[in-house]
């Protein structure tokens, strides 16, 4: 299981080089149509690259009877199962070249094992979320919810696990 604070500790202070959405092929047309929006969901992974060639690839993984946030190495996708689309829209593109200042990790209130379901990335140019969820929520679901400079509609229903800075 990922040690999220340790994973992000080495990325804080780094410059964002790019964000790539990696949907399953059946979600690609819908995602392509929604990429200008500030928040959307899809099934697949998100690849956040830094200028120093470091990266974090986030997806979902089933853990017991729950879906939780996972790194790309934990979420096993068959080769070539995911398409790749560069993040689009002014709000997403403004993040490229910014510095990652901190990352806040979240869990669900009824998860006694405190699995991470979302990460809010705070940068020098704004913030963005990547978490498991559906079209309008972060939580126990086998898709990703992503949003830039906005919180998920159910923000009050998730619990902070702390901030890595």
TrEMBL record:
It comes from the Bacteria. This is Uncharacterized protein. It comes from Brevundimonas nasdae. The lineage of its organism: Bacteria, Pseudomonadati, Pseudomonadota, Alphaproteobacteria, Caulobacterales.
